[in-house]
């Protein structure tokens, strides 16, 4: 199983180690970084987040979806108006496109993720 780990989890992990994340990290090639998550961590600009950013650069990354891919996803998977942002939509798209799991502490994102998986259990074009 491969995971995209949301910024919320990484930031929480800096404050207090998260056992589930440590377990995932112990499995080889289990985490794929999304470049937008890396960007968010880089923007936080603390000593801890800068050190984390440097470590996360060692993980493989996924490509960033094109605008047309995101537009398709938003229109066909009905995620608009659900209280999630553009980076969240990118994460959802990437997770569904690649059959990854999403690990997030963001309650809205988690809810939309579960709804999308249960309502549209199909691979994107």
What features would you describe in this structure?
It is built from seven helices and two strands; from the N terminus they run E-H-H-H-H-H-H-E-H. With 125 residues, the chain is mainly α. The chain has a single domain, classed as Rossmann fold, CATH 3.40.50.1010. Strands 1-2 form a two-stranded parallel ribbon. Helix 3 packs antiparallel against helix 4 (47-56). The chain starts with a strand and ends in a 6-residue tail after the last helix. 23% of the residues are buried.
Compact overview of the structure:
The chain is mainly alpha-helical. The chain has helices at residues 7-15, 19-25, 35-44, 47-56, 67-77, 86-98, 107-119; strands at 3-5, 101-103.
Descriptors for this entry?
single chain; 125 residues; mainly alpha; Rossmann fold; two-stranded parallel sheet; 2 strands; 58% helix; globular
CATH class: Alpha Beta
Summarize the helix and strand pattern as letters. Answer: EHHHHHHEH
Q: Going across the biggest sheet, name each strand in turn.
A: 1-2
Please report the number of helical segments. Answer: 7
The count of DSSP E runs of length 2 or more, i.e. the number of strands, is 2
Strand content: under 5%
What is the overall shape? globular
State mean pLDDT (0 to 100 scale).
93
Q: If you compute it from the alpha carbons, what radius of gyration comes out, rounded to the nearest whole angstrom?
A: 14 Å
CATH superfamily: 5'-nuclease
SS-derived structural category: mainly alpha
